[in-house]
Amino acid sequence: HRVACATVAAHLASDPTVRVTYNFTKADGSFDLSGLEPGAYLLFADPARSPGGPSTLGTPPPRNVRRLVRALPVPAPAGDSSVRVVVPFASAISGIVRGPDDQPLAAAAILIPSPIFEGWRMSGSSDHAGRFTLWIEEGTTTDIKIAPPAKNSPGTFEFVVDSAGNVDTSYELVVEDVAAGTTDLVLKLSRLP
């Protein structure tokens, strides 16, 4: 499938956190990234502005448009005009976060593994009824980390630190290999800070 209006960004292969340039795909899905110095890059495609893309998650996609998710990075040398980046179709994982009292827990952080670096990235947070939905590539699985609501900024991730200044992960819950399409997942935190 060809995706119009997706953002394609070139990041340094040596440091994927550094974005060098970006552009949007044309109606036919093609893109041009000009001005790159010789070297190795990782290309990221994000369909956020495309029909069915992540920026439309609050509303249903247009009729006959399937949801899309961000593509995994594709290695590419500068000047290579044959690079193809596939933006995959998405499938939802949904459920509810509950606290130790078994009541729905609002503003819990929902994290999934980062495709760029070792660790986790924020995917969203639970709503006022403790419900959440996240989108991953169809036919895949992901690990999910649930963290307690942040004290300073609910709906974001904040490390829980003990009195000695060490990160205390005992407040978090990690569930491994959750399949795309899973619904009614109940995730319960055993304790809150």
Characterize the structure shown:
0% of the residues lie in helices and 37% in strands. A hairpin with a 6-residue loop joins strand 6 and strand 7. The protein is mainly beta and 193 residues long. Strands 2-1-3-4 form a 4-stranded antiparallel beta sheet, with no helix packed on it. A 4-stranded antiparallel beta sheet has the order 7-6-9-10, with no helix packed on it. The chain has a 3-stranded mixed beta sheet with strand order 8-5-11, with no helix packed on it. It is built from no helices and 11 strands. Mean pLDDT is 85; it is low at 55-61.
Layout of secondary structure:
Blueprint: E1 7-12, E2 15-24, E3 40-46, E4 74-77, E5 90-98, E6 109-113, E7 120-125, E8 131-137, E9 141-147, E10 173-179, E11 185-188
Parallel strand pairs: 5-11
Antiparallel strand pairs: 1-2, 1-3, 3-4, 5-8, 6-7, 6-9, 9-10
Unreliable residue runs: 55-61
Strand order of the largest sheet: 2-1-3-4
Order of helices and strands: EEEEEEEEEEE
Helix/sheet category: mainly beta
Q: Radius of gyration, Cα only, in angstroms?
A: 19 Å
How would you briefly describe this protein structure?
With 193 residues, the protein is mainly beta. It has strands at residues 7-12, 15-24, 40-46, 74-77, 90-98, 109-113, 120-125, 131-137, 141-147, 173-179, 185-188.
Name its key features.
193 residues, mainly beta, four-stranded antiparallel beta sheet, 11 strands, globular
